[in-house]
TrEMBL record:
It comes from Comamonas koreensis. This is Uncharacterized protein.
Length: 96
């Protein structure tokens, strides 16, 4: 049975559940932020690697791609860089 005398005591006097909830939320926010930072660092590293592959693209391979997709060199570079910036995983997996 519940003791109504205890129920009338404020929460801050009965173990301060609010501070426990705040601490839990703060810990969860820090963990989420750390995970996002790690994912962003990994994404940035892959993006840098993909852009480096584009910079190393040979003229012969560029001519093949330009003929295949009917693009100019400038348009080809724009398309490749766009894909490398937005989907570096797929770009690195597939290659040029």
């Amino acid at each position: 049975m519940l003791d109504h005398g205890v129920l009338n005591v404020p929460l801050s006097k009965r173990g301060n559940i609010d501070s426990q909830i705040d601490r839990y939320k703060r810990e969860q926010a820090i963990a989420k932020r750390n995970e996002l930072d790690a994912r962003k660092a990994e994404f940035d590293a892959k993006k840098t690697e993909a852009l480096a592959l584009i910079a190393e693209l040979s003229d012969d391979r560029a001519k093949e791609l330009m003929a295949k997709h009917k693009l100019t060199r400038k348009e080809l570079d724009e398309v490749l860089k766009s894909v490398a910036r937005t989907k570096p995983d797929a770009f690195l997996l597939r290659g040029i």
